[in-house]
Amino acid sequence: MSFLVKFTTGQNYDRDFKPFKIDASVGYGIPDASDTKGGLLFAFEPKYALLSDQVCFGLRLEGALTKIASNSDSINANVNSESATNISALFTSDFYFNNNEVRPFLGCGTGVYTINTVVGKNEGQLLPDIAETTHWGFMLRGGIEWGHLRAGLEYNFVSSSASQSFKYIGVKVGVLLGGGRFNLISDN
Q1: Of 34, 113, 31, the residue nearest 66 (C-alpha)
Q2: How many domains does the chain have?
Q3: Which of 44, 60, 76, 188 has fewest C-beta within 10 Å?
Q4: Distance between CA atoms of 105 and 150, rounded to whole angstroms?
């Protein structure tokens, strides 16, 4: 008894996209707090399409730099500058609405945000004050991928301290390394 396996022209296999990709993005972070000015953000996110081409899981590593406005009260009247660095590590997932060339998506993530606040020198002080706090938070996002380009809008819900809000919106553009289409078409 013999089995004959025959591939016909145009036969496609199940997978249209490579399962592993890396998203490298830059953008602008817009803080939710009125006393904070926006700044540069950058992100690196390896992802894997585990179940299908329309669902990816990843780990987002992001840094956002912001400028905090100096207080005008008498206690902080001599503060030169204050800035905050928001570094986050989130487990993420994205859902893609189709497998076309332009792919709209929605996503979410949860993880930790480490906030480093640097207060510039006061009169008579040689070094700036540095404070570090860690907060739990989550993120919601949406955007599009077009080939190997990605653009998105993210809202980061970060638990706040009594005196400062750390929530911010990220507007990002980036490139995808890997993850593109490939064809497994047999010409036999």
Answers
A1: 31
A2: 1
A3: 188
A4: 10
Looking at the domain assignment, is residue 98 inside a domain?
yes
- For residue 185, is it within any domain? no
Strand-pairing partners, residue 25, are 43, 174
pTM listed for this prediction: 0.77
Burial class of residue 82 (count of CB atoms within 10 Å of its CB; 0-12, 13-18, 19+): buried
Residue pair 159/116 in contact (Cβ under 8 Å)? The answer is no
Instruction: Say how far apart CA 41 and CA 183 lie, in whole Å.
Output: 35
State pLDDT tens for residues 97-141. Answer: 998 889 999 999 999 999 888 776 656 556 667 788 899 999 999
- Please give the structure tokens belonging to residue 65: 């730099």
Residue 116, in any domain of the structure: no
What are the distances in angstroms from CA 46 to CA 6, 18, 20, 58?
Answer: 37, 13, 8, 6
Which residue type occupies 92?
T
DSSP 3: -
In a domain, 88, yes or no: no
The pair of structure tokens assigned to 22 is 């890396």
Residue 86 and residue 62: Cα distance in Å, rounded?
A: 8
